[in-house]
Amino acid sequence: MQSSDSCDFDEHSIAEAEKEILAVGTSAAVYALDEARVLKKHPSANEAFQREKRIYDRLGQHDNIARLFGTTSTGLVLERGECLRKVLLQRKESRKSDSEMILNLIWAIQAAEGLLHIHSRGVIHADVGPHNLILVDSKRQIKWVDFEGSGIDDEPATASYDIHYWRPTEGDDASVNTDIFAFGCLLFEIEQGFPPYSDVFGDLPLHERVMQIERLYSQGQYPDISGLFFGQVILGCWTLRFQDMAQVLVALRGLSSQSLWATIVGSVWERMVAMISTTISSFRISLR
């Protein structure tokens, strides 16, 4: 368990180490301590703080869960990384490359492994998305964060999904199924660079956007995934063909062999054809 490998931090030394605020949420603020650590500080030792500490203790050490170094009376000293959504936005305008596609697959598999571990410990994340994933080790390792609103055992989640990641269900409680549906949206955003339907309803007022997206999801209407590398896995998450994250992980690992190689070969072939066409055109011009 993470708590056995962590220690309580002196309040005074932590206060002196606090640097700039990195993020502010509904119940806590995140401060930079150094290049490797942040302090997630609550206004008091409230229920959200107690629940998140308990969940980190339950999850223990895992390659795809942010490390808990220790606690203060009202805060958690956690591993620092760069927000995945920020990285996706930064590269949104750049040309897609084969190396980017391979990195997407690595991130997807790591995120799936982390979420599978979370579920195996009786925890429902309840806010699956790139805003709750950080990248460490020069962006090669992906890790889940933010469990203050997650469900644990028979205690329902208090968090809510991003509006583009939530499909209305018969009950309002987050579950393994709602996490899996949201994971499909995560794969979509990793590949496309934006959340599902944000390109369609992004200019609408928030309440109208929520109504439109909920209506489409309720009717089983989803964004076009034809041509997407993750397409069939995304669809499996959205239609709940996958009953657990173990099945999602198997599907993703299946992409890492034949499908990935075929996609890369196809991409290289397209570039070769384009180069040959350009060369022929240039040759014809030179003969005139």
From TrEMBL:
Keywords, alphabetical: ATP-binding, Kinase, Nucleotide-binding, Transferase
The name this protein goes by in its record: Protein kinase domain-containing protein
Domain Protein kinase: 1-288
UniProt keyword annotation of Cell division present: no
Annotated organism of origin: Exophiala mesophila (Black yeast-like fungus)
Superkingdom of this protein's organism: Eukaryota
Pfam family, one: Pkinase
GO terms of molecular function: ATP binding; protein serine/threonine kinase activity
